Amino acid sequence: MTPTPDYFRNIEPKTCTDCGKTIDEMHECYLNQCDQCLRHADHF
Ligand SMILES: [Zn+2]
């Protein structure tokens, strides 16, 4: 009956480190930037 860390991580929205916008984890689950900022930082 104890909540697992995965449960909290599931409900916790990931935010972009660049603009602070909520990232759609289904779209970018391994990145810390939203799609918009990623396109701006295309130079890698
Ligand atoms: Zn962003």
Structural summary, described in words:
It comes from Halalkalibacter alkalisediminis. This is Protein YhfH. There is one protein chain. The protein has 44 residues and is of the alpha+beta class. The protein has one domain. The protein is 30% helix and 9% strand. The protein has helices spanning 5-11, 35-40; strands spanning 14-15, 22-23. The longest helix is centred in the N-terminal third of the chain and has 7 residues, at 5-11. The termini are far apart. Bound molecules: zinc ion. The site of zinc ion has 8 residues, from helix 2.
Structural features:
single chain; 44 residues; 2 helices; 9% strand; elongated
Mean pLDDT: 74
Order of helices and strands: HEEH
Rounded radius of gyration (Å): 13 Å
Number of helices: 2
The biggest sheet amounts to: 2 strands, antiparallel
Number of strands: 2
User: Which structural category fits the helices and strands?
Assistant: alpha+beta
Question: DSSP strand (E) fraction?
Answer: 5-15%
The strand line-up of the biggest sheet is 1-2
InterPro entries: YhfH-like
Organism: Halalkalibacter alkalisediminis
Protein name: Protein YhfH
